[in-house]
Write a structure and sequence with these properties.
By secondary structure, the chain is α+β, with helices and mostly antiparallel strands. The chain folds into four domains: 31-103; 106-193, Baseplate protein-like domains (Phage tail protein beta-alpha-beta fold); 199-304 and 431-440, Immunoglobulin-like, CATH 2.60.40; 307-429, Sandwich (Immunoglobulin-like), CATH 2.60.40. 19% of the residues lie in helices and 45% in strands. It has helices at 31-46, 52-65, 82-103, 117-128, 154-165, 361-370; strands spanning 2-9, 12-18, 108-116, 132-136, 144-153, 167-169, 178-182, 196-199, 202-213, 220-231, 236-243, 247-251, 256-259, 265-269, 277-286, 293-313, 322-326, 329-342, 345-356, 375-378, 384-385, 392-397, 400-410, 418-440. A hairpin with a 2-residue loop joins strand 17 (322-326) and strand 18. Helix 1 runs antiparallel to helix 2 (52-65) and helix 4 (117-128) runs antiparallel to helix 5 (154-165). The termini are far apart. 32% of the residues are buried.
Length: 451
């Protein structure tokens, strides 16, 4: 874990809290890891047993070992018999689903005692895998805050951090980290703090709630509620789906508000994945009632690229067609070309192919997202360098893509860099149930157009 100044903004300093992986080759294998590997090898041999009882028992034991054995399962094409290949394929698919289901649950944070913002952000990143960037005044760097969070979910923990340090969520959020910014006025209330609820690894908040005239209907007004949905940065939401009648509103006196378009079906693609998901809910309000508060509840479905795995490549100048495999995903570094840009810097162009064991519709919905998977160059001191040009797609097939990343202004030697690529292993639908019990509606006169 490292902190570094990445830029200056006025008299403020932007600090980064991010997880730093292993540099300089794979870490030594622990005794537990070697023992687990040996167990997996034995069970794989039993999958080829002559007796059905031994084959079924071996398959069950591999499943009971859980998702931690996924990196140890061999590629199906390397196995001798069709029966073993099919067994390993089924085992991998079930374990990936278990891992994906766990990955979309909320991360958990424990913070206690007095500590600086940097220390608190470092612990949150270490415990959850979510990178955090924040902009703070220089005199606040060493200021200490009191925390008492025990087994707290990620988003409530970050909300508590915001309240303590007078921070708020930046309007623009990148795809792989959370950016917090300092409030311009310490008397301000951090945005979205009052009306915020949590569902799995997502945070939902009310952006606005307004009542206005509904043209063409003299008996009703329009209530428009805008919601913001943020996923933990370690996740990759692809698109959100909901129907008009999936969102239900009720006035304070118990009157149910009818959706403006109950049969409408919404599917919002999220493109590069940066920033919150913005949801708009419209309801019809009887013109005669006085609406000061509303209850809103509903169900959203977020298709999410989950259970990300990391793939690391070192010795870049000598790397051609180097393959890494993890959890049913194969990443191949095809070429790594370094060219002198100036006397003191270089440009690197890396061509990478990503292939999934299973293509089809799930991969099709994920294909555009592949272009926005996390790809960085990492230096020996832990600094992370992101691509400077948009990702270039060179080839697309069912279940695979070939892309090119360009990094510029590289000051170190080519051999000093490690290429780190992160890819989700499965696409899952995450149902988000939520309820806002009291959303205040601003009271102001509605100017009505005469009929």
């Amino acid at each position: 874990m490292r902190y570094r100044a990445v830029s200056s903004v006025g008299n403020s300093l932007i600090l980064t809290a991010s997880l730093v992986g292993w540099v300089g080759g794979a870490p030594p294998e622990s005794d537990d890891r070697r023992e687990l590997r040996a167990t997996v090898v034995q069970l794989l041999e039993r999958l080829d047993s002559n007796t059905r009882q031994q084959r079924v028992a071996a398959q069950q034991q591999l499943l009971e070992l859980g998702p931690r054995v996924l990196p140890l399962l061999p590629a199906t094409e390397s196995l001798r018999t069709a029966g073993v290949r099919e067994s390993v394929r089924r085992i991998r698919l079930r374990l990936e689903r278990i891992k994906a289901a766990r990955s979309v649950e909320s991360s958990v944070v424990t913070l206690s005692g007095r500590q600086t913002l940097a220390a608190a952000a470092r612990q949150i990143a270490e415990q959850t895998g979510n990178s955090i960037e924040y902009e703070i005044a220089p005199d606040a760097v060493e200021r200490q805050f009191a925390f008492d969070l025990r087994e707290q979910k990620f988003w409530p923990a970050v909300d508590a951090l915001n309240r303590q340090a007078s921070l708020r969520y930046a309007e623009q959020q990148p795809a792989d980290r959370l950016i917090l910014e300092h409030l311009a006025d310490s008397r301000q209330t951090p945005q979205d703090q009052v009306a915020a609820v949590y569902s799995q690894a997502f945070r939902l908040s009310v952006r606005s709630a307004q009542r206005r005239q509904l043209f063409g209907d003299a008996d009703h007004d329009l209530l428009r509620v805008r919601l913001s949905v943020l996923a933990e940065p370690r996740l990759r939401p692809l698109f959100v789906k909901y129907a008009g009648d999936d969102l239900k509103a009720r006035a304070a006196m118990g009157t149910r508000l009818e959706p403006l378009s109950p049969q409408a079906r919404q599917e919002l693609p999220l493109g590069s994945g940066g920033g919150p998901i913005l949801i708009q809910a419209d309801f019809k309000v009887p013109a005669a009632i006085d609406l000061t508060m509303v209850e809103l509840r509903g169900l959203l479905s977020v298709q999410t690229a989950a259970a990300a795995e990391s793939f690391e490549f070192s010795d870049l100048p000598d790397s051609t067609n180097v393959s890494r495999r993890n959890g049913g995903v194969t990443v191949v570094l095809r070429t790594a070309e370094f060219q002198q840009q100036r006397t003191d810097s270089r440009q690197a162009r890396l061509r990478v192919s990503i292939s999934y064991d299973t293509g089809g519709p799930a991969f099709e919905s994920h294909r555009n997202w592949v272009l926005h998977n996390r790809a960085v160059l990492q230096t020996s001191d832990g600094s992370l360098i992101r691509p400077t040009l948009p990702t270039t797609t060179l080839l697309q097939t069912d279940g695979a893509v070939l892309v090119e990343y360009t990094f510029e202004q590289l000051a170190a030697k080519p051999e000093d860099y490690v290429f780190v690529y992160s890819a989700p292993t499965l696409i899952v639908n995450v149902p988000l149930e939520f309820e806002f019990p009291r959303i205040p509606i601003p009271s102001h006169a509605i100017e009505r157009t005469p009929p």
